[in-house]
Amino acid sequence: MLKKDLQQFKKKLEEEKIDIEKELKEHKKMPRFGTESTDPDQETDESEEYGNQLSIIQTYKSRLSDINSALKKISNNKYGICEKCKSEIGLNLLKINPESRLCKECKKKA
């Protein structure tokens, strides 16, 4: 992989990391339970909103973990290598998903 490509991926990953960390901070405001409402529909809505927020937060945390892993690989000169088959991950795939851990072929098999 060319050094300029590696620098572009690193910049993109760092920008995405900042964006995700902002999103995680915004989603810390979870719905408040324990209101004095006895309306079952309102309680159901609050519970559903809480579940949705947890799902979003988990997705962000997972992406952040993948981004941190990719940044670590860049600093260890192991970026762009498939974790499963150890072959090179194609540039087209990395342009779409710079935190990708698997090559196109291994993604198809998974």
UniProtKB/TrEMBL annotation:
Cited InterPro entries: DnaK_N (IPR037187), Znf_DskA_TraR (IPR000962)
Residues covered by the Zinc finger DksA/TraR C4-type domain: 78-109
Keywords: Metal-binding, Zinc, Zinc-finger
Keyword Acetylation: no
Compositional bias (Acidic residues): 38-49
Pfam family for this entry, one: zf-dskA_traR
GO molecular function: zinc ion binding
Zinc finger (dksA C4-type): 82-106
Region (Disordered): 24-50
Name assigned to this protein: Zinc finger DksA/TraR C4-type domain-containing protein
Organism, as annotated: Candidatus Wolfebacteria bacterium RIFCSPLOWO2_01_FULL_38_11
